[in-house]
Amino acid sequence: DLRKQARQLENELDLKLVSFSKLCTSYSSSRDGRRDRYSSDTTPLLNGSSQDRMFETMAVEIEQLLGKLTGINDKMAEYTNSAGVPSLNAALMHTLQRHRDILQDYTHEFHKTKANFLAIRERENLLGSVRKDIESYKSASGVNNRRTELFLKEHEHLRNSDRLIEETISIAMATKENMTSQRGMLKSIQSKMNTLANRFPAVNSLIQRINLRKRRDSLILGGVIGVCTILLLLYAFH
């Protein structure tokens, strides 16, 4: 009965270990494919994936089967050491040793596969963290470059505005200097004319007389022209 139970557990363990190994292989392949397909870490967290949950479930089931098989082997060892069983029965000892070797092989294979899976998951966690850091650095660098470019453009605009303001101020200063110079020239001419008028009063009176004479001549000429015009109109109507 114990050998029958041991064989049944060994068959179950064999199937579980094969499935467990396939799960670890498919997990590694799927992670490599996702890493090649995406440049950034867009996959969900490892602890929340279906493969991780399946791994944990299968690991617990295999550990339970290994514990049961260990218990069966211990019972078979107790049976061989119990009273009434020949201690030199080579067939029993060989059978017990064979089941112990199978248990040891299954245990070793399980721990090896589990260690490989955990190593792959730890490596993926590390690589995912590194990829996130790289993407964060790239994103931050892009933002910084964008900000630097905007600052450079704004600085260039400010420099252009300063240059235009300086040119406008220079034009205003030149205009002011020209107007000041012209004002000085006009004042100089006026002062010279006043000086001449003060130095030569006779000339000033002569000029006034000439102006009066011109006005009188203009009035006389206008009166003559008006009289002639009236006479011509009267002649024309009569």
Q: What structural keywords apply?
A:
single chain, 238 residues, mainly alpha, Methane Monooxygenase Hydroxylase, Chain G, domain 1, 4 helices
Characterization of the model:
- The structure is a single chain.
- The chain is mainly alpha-helical.
- It has a domain at 1-31 and 44-142: Methane Monooxygenase Hydroxylase, Chain G, domain 1.
- The protein has four helices and no strands.
- It has helices at 2-37, 50-81, 90-199, 201-237.
- The longest helix has 110 residues, at 90-199.
- It is rod-shaped, with a radius of gyration of 59 Å.
- The model is unreliable at 36-48 (pLDDT under 50).
- It is a single-pass type IV membrane protein.
CATH architecture assignment of the domain at 1-31 and 44-142: Up-down Bundle
In what range is the share of β-strand residues? Answer: under 5%
Helices and strands: which structural class? mainly alpha
Separation of the first and last Cα atoms: 171 Å
What spatial form do the alpha-carbon principal axes imply? rod-shaped
Name of the level-1 CATH class of the domain at 1-31 and 44-142:
Mainly Alpha
In angstroms, what is the radius of gyration?
59 Å
State the major sheet: none
Helix proportion range: over 70%
Please mark out the parts with pLDDT under 50 across 5 or more consecutive residues, or reply none: 36-48
Count of extended strands: 0
Report the mean per-residue pLDDT as an integer: 78
Order of helices and strands: HHHH
Number of helical stretches of at least 4 residues:
4
